[in-house]
Amino acid sequence: MILLLAKTVIGIVALLHIYFLWLEMFAWTTKAKKVFRKFPEELFEPTKTLAANQGLYNGFLAAGLIWSLTIQDAVWQIYVGLFFLACVATAGIYGAATASKKIFAVQGLPAILGIVLLLIHQFL
């Protein structure tokens, strides 16, 4: 039961990162303006390439999380899941410290929840 909940959280975190990829790579000068309201509007166009690069990294995180759900070996599935969730949690903590506290709630907390659930499953 706990493993199923952990996998559900991993799936949600992966979907969030697919959304971040889309937002930063393909909708930076349109939809992202509505999401990042505090970001100066005149900077969206000049930072388009930087945002796309950031979106690509979010795609790598999503791919790793999805990969963790497809691994057949139970131990490696947990290890890979923990690694990619730790990457997401670290990005969420760093983002909260350097950009916006909201990043921790949207990115860091779900990843930490996934980590806790995987560790509970591992040690029960």
Automatic annotation (TrEMBL):
Domain of life assignment: Bacteria
One Pfam family here: DUF1304
Name the InterPro entries for this protein: DUF1304 (IPR009732)
Keywords carried by this UniProt record:
Membrane, Transmembrane, Transmembrane helix
* Ranges that cross the membrane: 6-29, 50-70, 76-96, 103-123
Keyword Ribonucleoprotein tagged: no
Q: Which residues form a coiled coil?
A: none
Q: Does the keyword Membrane apply?
A: yes
- In Swiss-Prot or TrEMBL terms, this protein is called DUF1304 domain-containing protein
Q: What is the lineage of its organism?
A: Bacteria, Pseudomonadati, Bacteroidota, Flavobacteriia, Flavobacteriales
